[in-house]
Design brief:
The chain is mainly beta and 441 residues long. The chain has two domains: 8-172, no CATH class; 180-440, no CATH class. Helix content is 12%, strand content 39%. The chain is built from eight helices and 29 strands. It has helices at 107-111, 179-187, 269-280, 284-287, 310-318, 335-340, 350-354, 367-371; strands at 8-22, 25-34, 46-57, 59-65, 71-78, 84-93, 99-105, 118-123, 130-131, 136-145, 157-167, 188-189, 198-202, 208-209, 216-220, 227-230, 233-241, 244-249, 255-256, 293-297, 299-300, 324-328, 382-388, 394-398, 404-408, 413-414, 418-420, 427-429, 438-440. The strands form six sheets. Strands 12, 13, 14, 15, 16, 17, 18, 27, 28 and 29 form a ten-stranded mixed beta sheet that branches. The two termini are 33 Å apart.
């Protein structure tokens, strides 16, 4: 039995140095070290598992490395006042001893030193965080050259950051669960009856299943508890796909053209806007957990629109008929996301809705399909990620009457940004209601 007497361990030393400052140019070298010691029976092994760029503003990475070791290093060029460089770092406890962070030292003292126009920030990690056996912790290091700087620094500035850990008791085991595992463990329903809402397992044809290996998990119904605080606003969880949460913004950004000509997503004006200007406006803590995802881009024959059920759209989006792949961070929901989100109702149950073409969901006889679907918006049309495969200027969208149809790409429709979270994202608090949304970490 292990001796549970707490032993203080300093496991991370981060050193940063700004050197060679000249007019209009700053060179930043950063070195991060993990050093572990322990007087307790057990294996202490914590190492970097990810070191990558996040948001770079007038900054260029020259070198970086250290994944799989206890030392991370990177060199970045800052061009001028207002430049900044943000890096994501992930440490993982690969040993047999749980740990808890008791204090963070060095950051405030460093920021008081000259040159005061160079500021360091560290986010995503705080005192009390557990790093149990097998757990990962992602945090961010940012260096900023103040935009208000009136002079060019000519002296060096260094940072020593120490994260002081003590042996944990293992009581933080719940914190090791990824956001997807947390939801599956705590929020999964085996069935949602008509007009009810919740997280369910989905089978190969979109049906609700009680299975240990479903195709995916989705939130369905008129108002499930799937709200998330993200980018200081409300987003909602579409579902869990291969261990990743898929989010959609609660509210539309407004009506926008998909493109002036052509339904090629990668070349579209909407894709450019969402993955450049809009992405740059998202706060860096939220950006740090967005996955650079490989999206499949499906095409649907416009002549068959009036016949296609949710599963048919899904097969076109994800199956062998998917036309293209696109790698990026922000896109749109699929028509199948909309179709599978219904719980149905008393007059038209979910299975009947799934067997009814989405084009016809505006009909009065199947109003339960749209009315008990949290993705339906009676006030806005909504662009989707699926195009007409035989007409280059047409893209599918969800109408404000509940049906799905196609429209010219140059006609503005509502835009709800959609994205996948990194698999390591955590849920740290919240119940998922609109007034108490999930908080991500």
């Amino acid at each position: 039995m292990l001796n549970r007497k707490k032993q203080k361990i300093i496991i991370v030393s981060l050193c940063a140095l700004i050197i060679g400052m000249v007019v209009g140019y700053a060179s930043l070298n950063q070195l991060l070290n993990i050093n572990g010691v322990s007087g307790i029976s057990g294996d202490f092994k914590i190492e970097f598992t990810k070191i990558e760029e996040n948001t770079m503003v007038n900054a260029t990475t020259i070198t970086k490395g250290g994944v799989g070791s206890t030392t991370a290093n990177f060199t970045v060029d800052l061009e001028k006042p207002g430049s900044s460089a943000l890096y994501d770092l992930t440490v993982e406890n690969k040993g047999t001893l749980d740990a808890v962070l008791t204090s963070i030292e060095g950051l405030d003292e460093s920021n008081l030193k000259d040159p005061v126009d160079i500021i360091y920030t560290v986010t995503g990690i705080k005192e009390g965080d557990s790093l149990n056996t097998g757990a990962q912790k992602k945090f961010q290091v940012q260096v900023t050259w103040k935009a208000s700087a009136t002079s060019i620094p000519t002296t060096s500035k260094s940072l020593i950051l120490k994260l002081n850990y003590e042996q944990g008791t293992g009581s933080g085991e719940e914190e090791k669960l990824s956001a997807s595992d947390y939801l599956i463990k705590n929020n999964l329903n085996t069935q949602v009856t008509p007009t009810e809402s919740g997280l369910v397992a989905i089978g190969n044809n979109g049906e609700i299943v009680d299975s240990t290996s479903p195709r995916e998990y989705r939130y369905i119904g008129p108002n499930p508890d799937n709200y998330v605080h993200f980018n200081n606003e409300l987003w909602r969880i579409i579902g869990i796909f291969n261990g990743q949460l898929k989010l959609i913004r609660k509210d539309s950004l407004g009506n926008m053209e998909y493109n002036d000509y052509g339904n090629d997503w990668g070349a579209s004006s909407l894709s450019t806007y969402l993955n450049a200007e809009y992405l740059q406006g998202i706060d860096h803590n939220s950006v740090s957990i967005i996955d650079n995802h490989l999206w499949t881009i499906g095409g649907v024959d416009g002549n068959t629109t009036s016949e296609l059920i949710a599963q048919s759209f899904y097969e076109s989006e994800h199956g062998p008929d998917a036309m293209l792949e696109w790698s990026g961070k922000i896109a749109l929901m699929y028509p199948s996301d909309y179709g599978f989100a219904t719980s149905g109702g008393a007059s038209t149950n979910r299975n009947t809705c799934l067997g009814t073409a989405l084009y016809s969901w505006n009909n009065a006889g199947v109003s339960d399909c749209k009315n008990n679907n949290w993705l339906y918006d009676s006030l806005n049309n909504q662009w989707t990620f699926t195009s007409n495969s035989n007409y280059i200027n047409a893209q599918y969208y969800v109408l404000d009457n509940g049906g799905i149809d196609e429209d010219y790409v140059s006609y503005p429709q509502g835009v709800r940004p959609t994205l996948y979270l990194d698999p390591s994202a955590l849920i740290t608090s919240g119940t998922g209601t609109e007034t108490d949304p999930f908080i991500l970490g």
